[in-house]
Amino acid sequence: MDQQIQEIKQWLYQAGDKIKSSLSAELSIDEKSSRTDLVTNMDREIQNFLIDKVHQNYPEAKILAEENGYNELTSMSGEVFVIDPIDGTLNFVLEKENFCIMVGLYEEGRSKLGFIYNVMQDELYWGGRGYGVFCNEKQLERPEDKALTEGLIGMNAHMYLHNHYQAQAIGKRSMGVRMSGCAGIELIAVIKGARVAYLTNLSPWDYAAGCAILDAFDFRYSRIDGQSLSFNGREHFVAGTPKAYSQMIGML
Ligand code: IPD
Ligand code: CA
Ligand code: CA
């Protein structure tokens, strides 16, 4: 297992180096569903790099990933790598920071390991049930189980603006609302105790890695109706400390 963790960490550090060394090169950018839904040559390159690594090292494993036709799986049976090559592509294009590379590893639909690499901060958060949670080599303590009223909440801007699912009342009950444009950064913030919750709308590759790490702390996450996530298409998503999560589920 240790070998597997070291191996996947190396994939992510190498992928991050590829992005860092390409920052001054011109990007090729395509629109997907809208002018704010972008994919770049680097999203594709990083995904291909990670998929090659999975194929070379885990030929039996299945892959669920955002780009290039890998974005659907009929079932989560067996070993599944869930990959978001660049999470926060808009930030990557416009800010050149505040984006992550994410890999989640699932077995028979159950989380095993999650890796979220904030490339420009050079912070690789990883962990899983029974392994604890780390930032690079440093083990993190489980954050205090704070209530919604005691901390900050990360939120999806569209949901907050249009007050979907009581988002504004939930924000008001917290100490303040934060929006980063990157699911990985929001989930890292919950994992390290900087925020108590995250309310949003995500695809499986946006939440898989973060949920595997949250499982190491027994923090909570689900669809907003409290049902399990399906790993199939976008879903409204809530995560947080046990206390904040329960308060939010009661309000949603
Ligand atoms: C997006 C980001 C964003 C979230 C969107 C995601 P992408 O991922 O994580 O924060 O609100 O739902 O699609 O497309 O940049 O990988
Ligand atoms: Ca994403
Ligand atoms: Ca992405």
Architecture overview:
By secondary structure, the protein is of the alpha+beta class. The chain folds into 2 domains: 2-140, Fructose-1,6-Bisphosphatase, subunit A, domain 1 (Fructose-1,6-Bisphosphatase, Chain A, domain 1, 2-Layer Sandwich), CATH 3.30.540; 148-251, D-Maltodextrin-Binding Protein, domain 2. It contains 8 helices and 14 strands. The chain has a 7-stranded mixed beta sheet, with helices on both faces. A 5-stranded mixed beta sheet has the order 11-10-12-14-13, with helices on both faces. A hairpin with a 3-residue loop joins β7 (123-128) and β8. The longest helix has 21 residues, at 2-22. One calcium ion binds at residues 84, 87, 183, 205-206. Residues 66, 84, 87-89, 156, 181-183, 200-202, 206 line the site of D-MYO-inositol-1-phosphate (IPD).
Task: Present the secondary structure layout.
Blueprint: H1 2-22, E1 29-31, E2 38-40, H2 41-57, E3 62-65, E4 79-87, H3 89-94, E5 100-107, E6 110-118, E7 123-128, E8 132-135, E9 138-139, E10 152-155, H4 157-161, H5 167-173, E11 176-178, H6 183-191, E12 197-202, H7 204-216, E13 220-223, E14 235-240, H8 242-251
Parallel strand pairs: 3-4, 10-11, 10-12
Antiparallel strand pairs: 1-2, 4-5, 5-6, 6-7, 7-8, 8-9, 12-14, 13-14
The structure holds D-MYO-inositol-1-phosphate and calcium ion (2 copies).
